[in-house]
Design goal:
Blueprint lengths: L1 H19 L3 E5 L2 H12 L5 E5 L4 H9 L3 E5 L10 H9 L4 E5 L8 H11 L2 E5 L7 E2 L2 E2 L6 E5 L12 E5 L2 H11 L9 H12 L33 H34 L3 E3 L6 E2 L4 E6 L7 H6 L3 E2 L23 H9 E5 L6 H12 L3
Parallel strand pairs: 2-3, 2-4, 4-5, 5-8
Antiparallel strand pairs: 1-9, 6-7, 6-11, 8-9, 10-12, 12-14, 13-14
Helix pairs in contact: 1-8, 2-3, 2-6, 4-5, 8-11
Length: 369
C-alpha cells in the first residue's frame, strides 16, 4: 500500500507539473484545504486577503481557517470577472493576498490582477477549482499567479471524490507552498470519497437531481458556509481517482464545450435570459453554463431542478453568518455581486447529458418570459 500510494502520488504530481507548468505541487484532502494553508502561509494570523464578493462559500471557509481578515471586491455580472476599481480599493486597504476565482469555468482577467498585485507587492492566488478545461491567452486556468488551487471534489471536472492541490508557479509561490506543507496533517482513509464517487456517477443524469437533497452526506446543491476543518494530505483513493479523471478531462471538456455551444444558441433565441460574456482571449471550460434571468421571468423551481438547473450562490460573502465579522468592508453595497445572487442560475453541461436532456434544456432556455 505504501509503495502504491507513493507511486500514485508521484504520478499525479508529475502530471500536474506538466499540465500546469508549475514548480511545486502539494496534494491535499480538498481544494478548500489547499487554499486555507496557502492563505495561512502567505501571511500571519489576521492578514488581509481580498476575495470576490460573489463566489463559492468555501473560499470564505478557507479564509476563516487561515485566520485572515477579508476585504471584498465586486464582480461584474456580464463577465463574472473582478471589477478593476474595486480590486484597487481592496489593495489600498492593505490586502496582501488577492484570490481570483474562475467561476463556472469562465476565465477572469488574471493579467490585470497580476499587474495590480505586483504594484502592491501582494500575492495572487488563482482559485481554479472550477477552471478545468479553460484557458486565458493560451495558458490553462490554474497556471497563473504565484499560486493556484485545484479541486478534485464533486462537480469540479476532475473528480476524485475529494482532494485538491496547491501549485506554485514562481519563487515566491514556492516559498509559500513550502511553509504550507508544514500545516498539512496526515491523510485519513478515503472510503467516504469512494462512496461520493459512486453516488455522483449515479446521480449525474438530470432526471435524478431531485434525489441528492435526501442524501445528507453528499451536500449536493447546497450553498452553505461551513466551519473550517484541519487540512490534511490527499487520501490514496482520491489520488488514484483524480489521476484517472485527469487523463479523461480533455475529452470531457470538449464534450462540455459542444453541449454549451448548443445551449447558448438556444438561449440567444429566446427572451428573459442573458448569457455571460467570455473575456477576449479567454476560453471557458464551461463547468456549468451560467445565465442571468430577467426579473420578470416566471420561475418553476421544482421543474428547473429536475432539469439540473440550479440557482447560483444566494448571498454576498459579507452576508454569511459566521463570516461577516471577518469582512472589513461589509458596509459596501457590491451591486454586481448582489445582482448575481438575485438573477444567476446554472445549467449542466457534462458528458452524461443525453439528447433528451439537451432538448429539455434548450426548450427551457428558449421559453418566452
Amino acid at each position: 500500500m505504501g509503495f502504491g500510494w507513493e507511486a500514485g502520488r508521484e504520478a499525479l504530481e508529475g502530471e500536474l507539473r506538466r499540465r500546469y507548468d508549475c514548480e511545486a505541487v502539494l496534494l491535499t484532502d480538498s481544494g478548500t484545504s489547499a487554499l486555507q494553508v496557502a492563505l495561512a502561509a502567505a501571511g500571519s494570523g489576521g492578514a488581509r486577503v481580498a476575495l470576490p464578493a460573489y463566489c463559492c462559500y468555501d473560499i470564505a471557509t478557507a479564509a476563516t481557517g487561515a485566520g485572515c481578515r477579508a476585504v471584498l471586491y465586486d464582480v461584474d455580472p456580464a463577465t463574472l470577472g473582478p471589477d478593476r476599481d474595486s480590486v484597487q480599493r481592496a489593495l489600498e486597504r492593505g490586502a496582501g493576498v488577492v484570490v481570483a476565482a474562475h467561476l463556472y469555468g469562465y476565465p477572469v482577467d488574471v493579467t490585470m490582477l497580476s499587474s495590480a498585485c505586483s504594484q502592491a507587492n501582494a500575492v495572487l492566488v488563482e482559485d481554479a477549482a472550477q477552471g478545468v478545461g479553460g484557458a486565458f491567452r493560451g495558458r490553462s486556468l490554474g497556471s497563473w499567479g504565484s499560486l493556484s488551487v485545484l479541486s478534485f471534489g464533486r462537480g469540479k471536472g476532475v473528480t476524485g471524490g475529494g482532494g485538491g492541490a496547491l501549485l506554485a508557479h514562481d519563487a515566491r509561490g514556492a516559498g509559500i507552498l513550502s511553509r504550507a506543507r508544514e500545516r498539512i496533517g496526515p491523510w485519513v482513509r478515503g472510503m467516504r470519497n469512494l462512496g461520493v464517487l459512486v453516488a455522483q456517477w449515479m446521480l449525474a443524469r438530470p432526471g435524478f437531481y431531485a434525489l441528492p437533497s435526501s442524501i445528507p452526506f453528499l451536500h449536493l446543491g447546497e450553498t452553505v458556509f461551513r466551519s473550517p476543518g484541519r487540512p490534511r494530505a490527499a487520501a490514496p483513493v482520491s489520488v488514484a481517482a483524480a489521476r484517472d479523471a485527469l487523463e479523461l478531462s480533455r475529452d470531457e471538456s470538449a464534450t462540455r464545450r459542444r453541449n454549451t455551444l448548443r445551449l447558448l444558441h438556444a438561449a440567444r433565441q429566446g427572451r428573459g435570459v442573458d448569457t455571460v460574456r467570455a473575456l477576449e482571449g479567454g476560453e471557458p471550460g464551461y463547468l456549468r453554463l451560467p445565465v442571468l434571468l430577467s426579473p420578470d421571468r416566471e420561475r418553476n423551481v421544482r421543474a428547473e431542478r429536475r432539469l439540473g438547473i440550479m440557482p447560483g450562490y444566494p448571498r454576498v460573502l459579507h452576508q454569511l453568518e459566521g463570516f461577516a465579522e471577518a469582512v472589513e468592508n461589509r458596509d459596501v453595497a457590491f451591486p454586481g455581486a448582489r445582482t448575481l445572487t438575485q438573477r444567476l442560475v446554472t445549467l449542466p453541461t457534462h458528458g452524461l447529458l443525453g439528447e433528451g436532456d439537451l432538448i429539455a434544456l434548450e426548450r427551457w432556455l428558449s421559453a418566452a418570459a
